[in-house]
Amino acid sequence: MGRGLAKSTMKTPFLESKRLILHALKPEVDLCHYLSWINDQETTRFMGSGRFPNFLSDLKRYISHYRQVKDGMLLGIATKKGRKHIGNITLHQIDNRNQLAEIGVIIGQKTARGKGYAQEAIRLVAEHAFMRLNLNKVCAGIVEGNEASKRAFEKVGFKVEGRLKHHFYLDNQFLDVFRLGLLRKDYVRQLAR
């Protein structure tokens, strides 16, 4: 376990589930693993990040931004077993007037992919958005071809609400972006089952 990881995951969790801890990231913590994720072309294939190189100073500014604003949060995703930092999740563009927000997630640790961690983290953040922040809807954008991410959101209950044609450029072609949404009433209905 790296020195920075110990600092970031030994704190009291902000949100937790059976297998995960979501915790606030700190800009002064060693973020070398996060930097390697955001610069990895495979990891950022379907993201706006990774088109240009990122530096530690960029990530520190990004994390500092989320610490200062009240319309979003950036949380590290760590496994309870081993306290390993495996990714990050955001709840951003929080719009209190219209009671909605966006969720974005990255599972940067390649060995942690395909294990349901993204789904579990999305569920935690969606529940927090509905039950603590009084939001009515959470949304996400998924690039065509990113089936793993689309499945993770759909397993939480998100539904495809629209499709933005030729909205994302990748590998010499324009791809569509799916807009997904989850309403609080639908989430609560799921919990009752």
Automatic annotation (TrEMBL):
Instruction: Indicate the segments forming the N-acetyltransferase domain, all copies.
Output: 20-176
Keywords attached to this Swiss-Prot or TrEMBL record, sorted alphabetically, are: Transferase
Q: Does the keyword Flavoprotein apply?
A: no
| GO molecular function per UniProt | acyltransferase activity, transferring groups other than amino-acyl groups
User: Pfam families of this UniProt entry?
Assistant: Acetyltransf_3
Give the matching InterPro entries.
Acyl_CoA_acyltransferase, GNAT_dom
Superkingdom field: Bacteria
Q: Is Nucleotide-binding there in the keyword field?
A: no
The protein's matches in PANTHER family, at most eight in alphabetical order, are given as: GNAT-FAMILY ACETYLTRANSFERASE (PTHR43415:SF3), SPERMIDINE N(1)-ACETYLTRANSFERASE (PTHR43415)
Q: What is this protein called?
A: GNAT family N-acetyltransferase
Query: Which lineage?
Result: Bacteria, Pseudomonadati, Candidatus Omnitrophota, Candidatus Abzuiibacterium
